[in-house]
Specification:
Layout: H1 14-24, E1 29-31, H2 38-42, H3 50-54, H4 59-67, H5 81-91, H6 99-112, H7 123-134, H8 141-147, E2 150-154, H9 164-171, E3 178-180, H10 186-189, H11 196-207, H12 214-231, E4 235-240, H13 250-261, H14 268-288, E5 292-297, E6 299-300, H15 305-311, E7 319-320, H16 326-338, E8 344-349, H17 355-361, E9 374-376, H18 386-399, H19 419-437, H20 445-463
Parallel strand pairs: 1-2, 2-3, 4-5, 5-8, 8-9
Antiparallel strand pairs: 6-7
Helix pairs in contact: 1-19, 1-20, 11-12, 12-14, 13-14, 17-18, 18-19, 19-20
């Protein structure tokens, strides 16, 4: 029986131990998709207490607290930070089997040197120790990034953002981590959602281009891509909850854009055609600027209407969608490929039933002399569990080139989430080591170590063309 979360946590044999400790453990991190605040990074935000850094905005934790019977007062309500922290301490012991149980302890161990079990009894002492550290030198937002050996952070940014803090960070010679924007134009794609017209007005103001037509709209989007490029952007991102594709023309898409701009409800057929043309237009721009493109597919958002009205979006009431993705996704990728304008692309699905579909599909669009040009993205959101990560990696290994995998991201709003990379790397090392133990691959530690280091860091650095 192993000691709880010791140095060989998740490593089941000697090969795994060597691969992790000799090759993976000390590799830097490229966090190519997250939701960290560039303002908080620039200002090196100091956190007033552990609740501030641990529980504010973390809908992963909020979901489990609700499921553990914790009253909303102690989650998103007006309880004190200490009482919310104690409510989390009551919840964590119930989370065995959930990665949050291990992530919580990893964060305490790696950032604060605390190896005690976290529960209601140990919580008061942990509260005091962590808060003392947080109020001392070296525990600001930037410090957590540097301690985690992060080299690049790609935040998630709306095209109408002015990227003020990205530019300030870039000019700050005292901070050597690259903090780059990612272009996320979701609000410009969802023409039937509330706020579309208001967003177009913001785009008009930010771009300086009056928007009276679809041509104007596309010109304004292109101007923002130009601006993001100037600030160092190398990647776009799209939340495509329902994958859509329909052959269309700019003239057809223009009609549906005008309907939405006039406040009318656009038909499903019209929505498909508008999204298809707009995504193709953007994909060509990304290819022009040599950006990578990310599609996050099949989330079912804001399931609980009452709580959406009370708390707003991104508060822990989302789940997996089960829409079919194969034909529309192939249609969109193929439309870009036919014009030789398919950028490097990363595909994620929130539904693990889609994993073999994506693993097979990416093989249809590889090429251009680019290793792993089309990537099956790492297990995302509800799938970034032990089982989910292994499931994604197995599908990729079965049908693709696992050695070219660009690895883990945090997809998080927390500065403590970099321990997820450690969790992932341990799983990668154990995954590879099992092949060795079974005689499926040679016992060549140096060769396998290079593959592990590639998945941990080098592949992403090369893929995104980071300097």
């Amino acid at each position: 029986m192993k000691e709880f979360m010791n140095e060989n946590f998740l490593l089941d044999n000697e090969v795994a131990v060597r691969l992790y400790h000799e090759y993976a453990k000390d590799m830097p991190i490229i966090d190519y998709h997250c939701h960290l605040s560039p303002q908080e990074i620039y200002e090196n935000k100091q956190f007033k207490n552990i609740t501030d850094i641990w529980l504010y905005g973390d809908h992963y934790k909020w979901r489990t607290m609700r499921a553990n019977g914790i009253d909303v007062k102690y989650i998103t309500g007006d309880a004190s930070d200490y009482d919310k922290f104690i409510a989390w301490a009551k919840t964590v012991p119930m989370l065995i089997g959930n990665p949050l149980y291990n992530w919580t302890h990893l964060e305490l161990q790696r950032f604060f040197g605390i190896h005690d079990l976290f529960n209601e009894e140990t919580a008061p002492a942990i509260w005091e120790k962590v808060n003392t550290l947080l109020n001392s030198e070296g525990y600001g937002a930037r410090d957590f990034i540097v301690k985690s050996k992060v080299k690049v952070v790609c935040t998630t940014d709306d095209p109408v953002d002015n990227l003020e803090y990205h530019q300030k960070i870039k000019e700050d010679a005292s901070f050597e981590v690259s903090v780059l924007p990612s272009f996320r134009p979701d609000k410009g794609l969802e023409l039937n959602r509330d706020g579309f017209q208001d967003w177009v007005k913001k785009l008009e103001q930010t771009s300086g281009i009056p928007i009276h037509s679809y041509d104007d709209f596309l010109q304004a989007l292109e101007s923002r891509v130009d601006f993001f490029q100037a600030v160092g952007c190398k990647v776009s991102d799209h939340a495509i909850d329902t994958m859509m594709y329909a052959e269309t023309s700019k003239e057809e898409a223009s009609v549906f854009f005008k309907e939405a701009l006039d406040g009318k409800k656009v038909s499903l057929d019209g929505e498909k055609k508008y999204k298809t043309y707009t995504l193709q237009f953007l994909g060509k721009l990304y290819a022009k600027y040599d950006w990578a493109m990310q599609y996050h597919i099949n989330a079912l958002r804001n399931n609980n209407t009452r709580m959406l009205e009370k708390l707003g979006p991104d508060t822990g009431f989302d789940s997996m969608n089960d829409e079919g993705i194969a034909k529309p996704l192939v249609g969109l990728l193929d439309a870009l490929e036919r014009e030789n304008a398919l950028p490097r692309t990363i595909l994620y699905s929130l539904n693990p039933n889609d994993f073999p579909t994506i693993a097979a599909m990416i093989g249809s669009f590889q090429g251009g002399g680019i290793p792993g040009k089309i990537q099956f993205g790492t297990a995302w959101w509800f799938n970034d569990t032990k089982a989910g990560m292994l499931h994604q990696m197995q599908n990729l290994a079965d049908m693709g080139v696992f050695s070219r995998f660009i690895g883990m991201l945090t997809d998080s709003r927390s500065f403590l989430s970099y321990t997820r990379h450690e969790y992932f790397r341990r799983l990668v090392c154990n995954f590879v080591a099992e092949w060795v133990e079974n005689g499926e691959v040679p016992h060549d530690i140096e060769f396998l170590g290079k593959i592990v280091q590639g998945i941990s860091y080098h592949n992403a650095k090369e893929y995104f063309r980071f300097g």
